[in-house]
From TrEMBL, chains A, B:
Lineage, opening ranks: Bacteria, Bacillati, Actinomycetota, Actinomycetes, Streptosporangiales
GO BP annotations, alphabetical order: amino acid catabolic process; carbohydrate catabolic process
EC number: 4.2.1.68
GO molecular function, one term: magnesium ion binding
Cofactor(s) the protein needs: Mg(2+)
Reactions it catalyzes: L-fuconate = 2-dehydro-3-deoxy-L-fuconate + H2O
One Pfam family linked to the record: MR_MLE_N
Signal peptide location: none
Designated name of the protein: L-fuconate dehydratase
Amino acid sequence: MPTITSVNVIDIRFPTSATLDGSDAMNPDGDYSAAYVVLETDDGDLAGYGLTFTIGRGNDLCVAAARQIGARLAGRDVDELAGDLGGLYREIMADSQMRWLGPEKGVVHLSAAGVLNAAWDLAARRAGKPLWRFVADMTPEELVAACDFRYLSDVLTPAEAVGMLARLAPTREERIAELAEHGYPAYTTSPGWLGYDDGKLRRLCREAVADGWTHVKLKVGANVEDDVRRLSIAREELGDRVLMIDANQVWDVPQAIEWVNRLAPYEPLWIEEPTSPDDVLGHAAIRKAIAPVGVATGEHCHNRVMFKQLLQAGAIDFCQIDSCRLASVNEIVPVLLMAAKFGVPVCPHAGGVGLCELVQHMAVVDYVCVSGSLEGRVLEYVDHLHEHFTDPVRIERGRYLLPGKPGYSARMHSESVDAYRYPDGHQWGG
Amino acid sequence: MPTITSVNVIDIRFPTSATLDGSDAMNPDGDYSAAYVVLETDDGDLAGYGLTFTIGRGNDLCVAAARQIGARLAGRDVDELAGDLGGLYREIMADSQMRWLGPEKGVVHLSAAGVLNAAWDLAARRAGKPLWRFVADMTPEELVAACDFRYLSDVLTPAEAVGMLARLAPTREERIAELAEHGYPAYTTSPGWLGYDDGKLRRLCREAVADGWTHVKLKVGANVEDDVRRLSIAREELGDRVLMIDANQVWDVPQAIEWVNRLAPYEPLWIEEPTSPDDVLGHAAIRKAIAPVGVATGEHCHNRVMFKQLLQAGAIDFCQIDSCRLASVNEIVPVLLMAAKFGVPVCPHAGGVGLCELVQHMAVVDYVCVSGSLEGRVLEYVDHLHEHFTDPVRIERGRYLLPGKPGYSARMHSESVDAYRYPDGHQWGG
């Protein structure tokens, strides 16, 4: 019966701003960072690894919050914890003093995600299973008991969720076998960062096609003439492959409509984050005005209540959950269920550091347990920073391969932790 | 030409949980706290004082964030800063790495409010004016230039805002004279904390009536039978005075409707925070189902984009802005303008520590500059912790008296700061 002996939270930052990797219209100079959570146990081989993702300054705030939230895990029995991850979630959310700082948003919620990601990782490792398999081996009742349905009952009740999961449970193994053979469909954002010049954009689009990518995403929103030129380059290189665009929240509603309609001739599948992530009604208005271009959002959608409304309002064509913005599996699965109920495909947000590693598991859970469909689904891929993980994502011909090792894939190499620890790692001059 | 020499942010906590003052259905044991911001200058008599409010644990996170956000103010010329408070706001919001942690919500936004509140206080003190007067002496153009209209243009443009302000500008002094004579209408929440027993509730309601209060608010939401009994006690004591109720977010939408309809016979004016503060569409559904009981919310409404939607969706009858949840005057005034446009009265949230001191200025600005109306307006009052402020609110016969001293009224006595500084103040055993 292993016990958690300590909760370590480490400030890890990568100086990505130097290369403009990850640059977009709202975030010109992010340093991809993680509040990295390690749950150590008295079983030398067993630990839990999780993270929340930020882009630099303020990562220390998430580290401090995760330390406070995580402190309650020290001394806990691993098997008890793993057997009641819903209880752990509810315990964390019930801290009313911390809740005041959100509620369920911002630094506290991001940090809760980091801690809970580590707890789910620990539970999956203890079971010797990849996270997706750990979830897929739960009964519908067990999975629903781990989920947060608070504030959702006008759209989805726990009983209804059990029914949805139960209908697909008998055929879970068929879909797992299919993913094991063919992988999960993906798209790449790597060619399209806003800081890249036209030559680099063209070269990277060409390489993406050669590598078998069928879907490519470009950043837009800084200058409309530049966007027209960049989209025409991308469209030339991509032919009839699928192109998506992403504005990272820079527009007001009327401006979004005007700008996207200028870019519509290049037939983007979706515009991502056209405006404030809080603006449910704004997204609905934009969607109406730019069809057939779709609307996608979610990487900054801060909790299940906001996703509920995006779905209720008919505001989105694609639901982009994020494994660090939402508070781990406990909050993501209810969003997957609501999206399935509304018939909206889930296309998780990835990139940053570790997000691809994490969300691949959630995409698999969506297909295997919740929606049973791959229609309209593509999982984001960005080719940064995977070398720092012990179980990095594997991509072949534009598809994610099914993860096979135990856990949630968020463990970093100790050499990387030592090098990029902020501010004392040697990559930071420490 | 004074210069800001240092930015001090202090963790202040009051052990209010010991007396159940402030207890409600969501927050049973808050320790009212403040990340207290002091902008010191090289003019010995001049400093700026601001705060953001929390309820205990996590106040240190706001302190840390406010230090990071405030650091940019050190070395600034006070007159330049005071002349471009919109520029300061935009500079703070443009920090994309910090923005990632929200955006515009949670710890980072609360902390930005604390820093900006101190900057507005400094500007008003430099001018020798109460904050409300400092704002009322700005031209419509100057005030609009200080405001954040990003993401609002589908509802309100800066040009339209100038027009709204200009229409009322010629009569500002008349309304100021009226407030100077009669004060601003208020209500009290002091009798109705959930932790108080029936006897104390009855006694405090009776005292409120004797003190001239015409509006009293009760906490509800823990147990419906208890609520029925407590409301019947309050109604007996209040006669035909106005009663409001506040559930502090504990219900799902269907539950809110059922519960409020049970309490409707006691004719509450409004139900406050019936569900998640993020649930715009939920509030709209509740409002439809419980009329003529009104819906009020806002103390946890995290930014202007959320208020925009509450108004667009017809989700609220009363708009409860908070001086620490929104990012200071720069973000509050646009909300006042939108509420005026939609004809929804603004009834600011107060209580906690220092909130009454701050929001009284915003209520005055609403009447004098923005809405020109007192109809349906009542400003919350709670009788806690005013003794710690150098310019506390003054109440007479259920009305706020017009503040007269320079600044935003958030300065604390140095003895209070020394005593309640966490964890080393002597009230904390330090």
